[in-house]
Structures are given as structure tokens and as C-alpha cells.
Amino acid sequence: MEIPVAGSRPRIAQEVRDLIRRMSLENPLWGATKMHGELLKLGIRVAQSTVSIYMVPRQGRPLQTWKTFIDNHAEGIASIDLFVVPTITFQLLFAFLVLGHERRQLLWFAVTRNPTAEWLARQITEAFPWDKTPRYLVRDNDRAFGAAFKAHVRAMGIRDRPTSYRSPWQNGHLERLIGSARRECTDHMIVFNEEHLRRILSKYASSTIMRCGPTLRLARTHPAHARSNGSGTLSRNRSLEGYTIDMRESEFSEGTRSFPVSAAPARPISRPAE
């Protein structure tokens, strides 16, 4: 008969240890926290650290990786990040981008000199209507995403999912967009001020949408529905998920939002002989 040592932990019954091992084998995706909660429901009171001790090691057991999480929930994920653009006077401007993972579409951008937590929270409100918020928000661990930002995101019903430290690959889609914006746009221009950078990013965002083509399913309009522009040629309207690109007006608009887009000449369409 074993005599317990004074001051030591109470010995765990063999039945409980066997149950923990069985649960860990039959539920390979359960961690110590989940298993501890299930044991409490059964009336078995043990510490979570004790559960982790008697669990079967995870060698060869399937785990949900970050890539699996991104692939499985792409339609409900949005990612955000900031990148720095210097001006002609060597001041630093911060561009804030919001990317939707479902179609890898740029949803929102903004420019500021001082990205505070309150300002970032306001941009999340502008980017997502309250009835169309994403389920998950992927971001890095920048200090700018402070307590006010986290509380606002939680109030909107969005699950905050910060990436691991020094792991930009976990937000790879947005990092790639930032790299493209640098290589194709900001690295080739001298920025004067905030308004100038907004115009540059606005035109870049519009041209990026125009280049997406099949990804965003630009619907073709039959020539019969095209309207005359008064010069003997016809201009076509292309529908893009609620957006309208008017090739004659050179305007890209959705509701009250308006982004200038480079004008494209209308193609002359021969009219059928009467």
C-alpha cells in the first residue's frame, strides 16, 4: 500500500488516466483545454496541467495548420495591414489596406500620418457594414492595434486572429498586395502629401480591379444595351458585382464611393444595316 507524501499532489485514479488517454486517441484534434472541459462535464475534477501530462503525445496526429484555417474559412476572412510611404519632405505616411480573402479583393484603403487605435477602429467600421462583417480578421501584432481597436472589433462580432510574431507569411495574401503596390506604384512616384497618396492609391486600386478580369467576372453587356455618347460611337457599361464602370464617363463608382479610373477609348461598333 502506497502512502502519499505530505504536501504532494493527490494521486490520479487509474480509470481517469485511462480515460484521458482514450479521449486523446479517439479525438486527435482535441487539446488539453477541450479535454479538461469535457472531464469537468463528467464530474471529474482534475487540473488542466494533469490532463496534458497523461495525454498521448501528438506524434503523427493530424493538426489544423494555419494554411488549413485560411483555406477552410477564406469566404469569411479579411486581413488588414499598414505599410509606410515616405514623402518628398521625408515625412512618413501610413497606408492602411483591407483585403477580402474570398476573391482576394481590395475592400478599403486609407492614409494617415498617425495610425492610432481609434483611427484604425473607425476604418474597420467604414470598410465593413454592420450586417456584412467578416467572421475572422487576420492582422499582425503592430502596437497600433491597441485596446480600443480590439474592443471595437469584438463589438462588431469579428474574431480577432493576430498572426504569430515575426511570421509575415501567415498574412501572405495582403503582404503580396503590399509588395505589388510598392513595385508597381509607390516606388516609382514622389509623394507630396496625404491627399496625393490617396489619389495615387485610388487610381492603383481602380486599375487593379480592371486587371482582375475573369477573377471578378466582368459581365459582358450586349451591344443592344449600349448607349450612344453623341460622337457616332457607342460606349459599353460593364457590371462588376454591383459596381459600374462607365467607359465614357471614366468613373468607377459604387453607391457613394467614387474612384477615378483611367479613361479607355470606346470601340466603334458597326451598326447593322437596316
User: What is the helical fraction, as a range of percent?
Assistant: 25-40%
Secondary-structure element order, N to C: HHHHEEEHEHEHHEEEEEE
Biggest β-sheet: strands ordered side by side in the sheet: 3-2-1-4-5
What fraction of residues sit in β-strands? 15-25%
| Count of β-strands | 11
Detail the topology: elements first, then pairings:
Blueprint lengths: L13 H13 L5 H10 L6 H7 L11 H7 L4 E10 L5 E9 L4 E8 L4 H11 L8 E4 L7 H9 L3 E4 L9 H13 L9 H19 L14 E2 L5 E2 L1 E4 L2 E4 L4 E4 L2 E4 L14
Parallel strand pairs: 1-4, 4-5
Antiparallel strand pairs: 1-2, 2-3, 6-7, 8-9, 9-10, 10-11
Written overview of the protein:
By secondary structure, the protein is of the alpha+beta class. It has three domains: 41 residues, no CATH class; 146 residues, Nucleotidyltransferase, domain 5 (2-Layer Sandwich), CATH 3.30.420; 44 residues, no CATH class. It has eight helices and eleven strands. It has a five-stranded mixed sheet, sandwiched between helices. Helix 2 crosses helix 3 and helix 5 runs parallel beside helix 6. About 21% of the residues have low confidence.
